[in-house]
Amino acid sequence: MNRRRLFGLSLVLPMMLGACGWEPLYADRNTSAGVEGLRAIKVNPIAERVGQQLEMGLRRSLNPDREPTKQLYALNVTLQKTLLDSGIQSQGLGTRGEVHLYARYELIDIVSNKTLQTGTIHTSDSFDIQANGYSTVVAQDDAAARDVEELRRELVARLTLFMQGKQAAS
């Protein structure tokens, strides 16, 4: 009997949420213009391996369907990578490392060559320093990849807000 009630409740609950005006947090039906603006951003090459990872991630995020779009904006990103030892034993050996990435970005209107938005984003992640050097390199690369993903998300969020604001202003 309890299973039938739970089943019935699971069928009725979504209808009740829809009737009260509830809608998903990230489901904005008015973002088509923002999405079109994101597709029109040309991501310029970014130096070094982490820069290439960020560049590829941004291109996939800004135009996931690879829809042919006229490039109206250029995105310049400069990365700085810093490695630190944060856990140090009494013998002076590191046990914990940190990867810090600093990204300075600039969104430029291609036609007028006017800077539309600039900013700086900082991310950091940590990793264990192992006795085995290979394990440490893999852990460090993994921490850098997590930093790149966090940078990508933050940059896409900022660009999306900018494009939506631009659309709302016009």
Count of discrete alpha- or pi-helical segments spanning 4 or more residues? 4
Structural class: alpha+beta
What is the CATH topology? Double Stranded RNA Binding Domain
CATH architecture: 2-Layer Sandwich
Lateral arrangement of strands in the main beta sheet: 1-2-3-4
Description:
This protein has 170 residues and is of the alpha+beta class. The protein has one domain: Lipoprotein like domain (Double Stranded RNA Binding Domain, 2-Layer Sandwich). Helices cover 46% and strands 29% of the residues. The protein contains four helices and four strands. The protein has a four-stranded mixed beta sheet. It is flat, with a radius of gyration of 22 Å. It starts with a helix and ends with a helix. About 3% of the residues have low confidence.
